[in-house]
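Aim 2, interim progress. The first record below pairs a target sequence with its C-alpha cells.
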Amino acid sequence: MCLSGRVTMNSIIFTPVGISPSKLRGSNTGVWVGVSGSEAAEAFSNDPETLLGYSMTGCQRAMLANRLSYSFDFRGPSVAIDTACSSSLLAMEDGFHAVRNGQCITAIVAGVNVLLKPSTSLQFMRLGMLSQSGACRTFDADGKKFGQLVFFLLYKVSHSLSLSLSLCLSVSLSLCLSVSLSLCL
C-alpha cells in the first residue's frame, strides 16, 4: 500500500469526536477521499523483477476510499475524488450533500497529500507556480505552497435532525472540534 493509503488508514480518528468505530460497522456510512497524486506508485514499480501486482491496487488513488470502507465495514458510497488542488474541497461538498440528502447517515471525508520526491516541487517551481514568499495567501497571485496533511471530517445527522460536523486534523498532532451545522441548512 502506498504511503498516502497507510497514513490515511492509520490516522482515522473516531474517539475524540465521540464516535465508536464498532457502532459504525455495517452501517450506511459513506467515505469520500480527496487525493491528487501518488508518488509511491513510481517507487514501487521501478524494478520489474520485484513487481507482485499489489502495488497497482495499493497505490491506486481510486482505491483509497474503498480501502477505508472495506476495512471499517462501511456500507455507504465510497468515492475517491481527484480534481487536483480542489480534491478535498469537492470531497467535503459531496459528503455533506450525501448526508443532507439522505444518501447515507454518516459521511467520513478525508483528504491526504504526501510528498515523497523533491522533483514534484522542482517542477512546480520551474513552472512559476510556487509562492515566491514561501507562504500561501488566499486570493493572492503569489503562488501556491505545498503541505503534507491528512484530515478527516465526519458529517452525521444528530438526534435533533440537524447535521453535525466533527473535524480531525492529523499530522504529528491531533486537533479535533465539533460544531453544529443546523444554521447552514
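The second target in this work package is listed in the same format:
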Amino acid sequence: MENNILALALFFLVLIGLLYLIVCLFRNYFIAYSNLYSHPNEKHIELQNQFNLHKRNQEVVVFEDEINYIINNRIKELDLLFPNEASEKTKEIEATLFLQNTKKAIYTSLYLLKRKQ
C-alpha cells in the first residue's frame, strides 16, 4: 500500500514537472512568435516615421529658402527705391577719417625726415 502511494506521488510529481515544462515551452513559443511579427513591423514603422520626418524637414527647408529668396528680393527693391542715407553719411565720415589719418601719417613722416637731416 505504501509503495502504491509513493508511486502515485512520484507519478504526480513527474506529471506536474511535465506540465510545467509544457507551459514553459508554450510561453517561449508565444514570445518567439510575438517577436517574429512585432519587431519587423516596429522597425518598419520607425523607418517610415524617420522617412516622413526627413521629408517634412526637407519641405520646411525648401519653404524657408523660398521665403528668404522673396524677402531678399524685396529688400533689394527697397534699397533701390530708397537709398540708405545713413550708409552715405557713414561713407563720408569714413572718407574724412581716412584723409585725416593719411595727412597725419605724411606729416609725421616728414617731421621725422626733417629731424634726421
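Helices lie at 2-81, 85-116. This observation will shape the mutagenesis plan for the next reporting period.
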